[in-house]
Amino acid sequence: MDASQIPREQWAQVVEQTGGPVTYKKIAVQQPGPDEVLVNVKYSGVCHTDLHAMLGDWPIPTKLPLVGGHEGAGVVVARGEVVKDINLGDHVGIKWLNGSCLNCVFCNQADEPLCREALLSGYTVDGTFQQYAIAKAAHVARIPKECDLAAIAPILCAGITVYKGLKESAARPAIMGLYAVAIDGGDEKRRACLELGANTFIDYTTSNDITADVRAASLDGLGPHAILVIAAQEKPFQQAAKCIRPRGTIVCIGLPHEAMMSAPVFDTVVNMVTIKGSYVGNRADTAEALDFFRRGLIHAPYKTIGLSKLQDVYEMMQANRVTGRFVVDTGS
C-alpha cells in the first residue's frame, strides 16, 4: 500500500463518554510523527483492560474520546522520517506500551513499562479498535510474516503479560516442565484449561475449600511454588496468601477495580513468602513471547468477531461469559 492508497477516513469503535458504550463510527486516519509508524490493523484482541478503559474505573484517567485496544496485529503502511529499521509492508503488533521516553532510569534498565512518560495504547492514546493506528516505532512488536495475525493478536498482551509473570515468579520447571493447576469456574473453562495443558482444574464455584484443594493438587501437598493471580475480582488475591507454600511467590497481575491485596504478616514472614506485582513485559519479553508462538509452543484459543460487534464482547465480559479471547476483525 502506497501513500495514495491510505484512506482519509476509517471505521473505529470510539468511547465518547466514560462508562460507554462504544460507538461504531468513521473517524479520520492520522499521519505518523517522525518516530512513529502507521499500522493497517487487521486484527485486535479484546482485553479486560479495554473494558476498564471504557468504564473509567481505574485511578488513571483515560483520554476522551478514546479508541481502545492494545492487541493489534497488522501491516506498516507509513513511517516517520527518522524511522529506519521498519519497512513498509512489515508485520508488527501494537501493544499496551505504545511508547516511552527511552532515556529515563527505568527505560535504561529495560523497565520501560515503568517509564513515567509511557504512552498506553487504548488508554492514554488511541489504540487498535480502528483500521489504522499509530505507535512509536521503537515499541512495536516485530511479527514474523509466517505468523497468522489473528492468532498472534492475543499474545501481544495476554501472552506477554502472563509470560512476564512467569519470569517474575522464578518458578523452576522440572525436566518435563511446570505442573500447572488452573482455577476457574464452569465446565466450559474446565475443558479449555485441560485442553491447553493444565494438569489439574479446580472449580471455585463448586469447591468447598479452595485452600485445601490447591494444596492437595500440589505434588507434595505443601502448595504451589508460584501463584499467578490474573483474576478480575478481589477474592482470589486474598485466597492466594492462604495457598502458597513456604518460600513460594505470589505474582499479582490482574487489576480488579479498587481491589486490595492482604496477607497475614506472621505467616508471610515465617514462611518467607514473596508477594510482588508484575506489569506488562518489556521489548525483550515481547520478542521472546512471540518467538515461543512462532515455534508453536503457545496456543491461545480465540474467536473472531467483526469490529462493529465490540460492545457485545464487553457485555459478555461483564456477564463473565467469555472463555479464551475475542479477536476483532477490522475488515481492512
TrEMBL record:
Pfam family, one: ADH_N
Source organism, top-level taxon: Eukaryota
Enoyl reductase (ER) domain span: 19-328
EC number: 1.1.1.1
Cellular component, GO, one term: cytoplasm
Single Gene Ontology MF annotation: zinc ion binding
Keywords, in A-Z order: Metal-binding, NAD, Oxidoreductase, Zinc
Requisite cofactors: Zn(2+)
TM helices/strands, residue ranges: none
InterPro entries: ADH-like_C, ADH-like_N, ADH_Zn_CS, ER, GroES-like_sf, NAD(P)-bd_dom_sf
Record family assignment: Belongs to the zinc-containing alcohol dehydrogenase family.
Identification of the protein by name: alcohol dehydrogenase
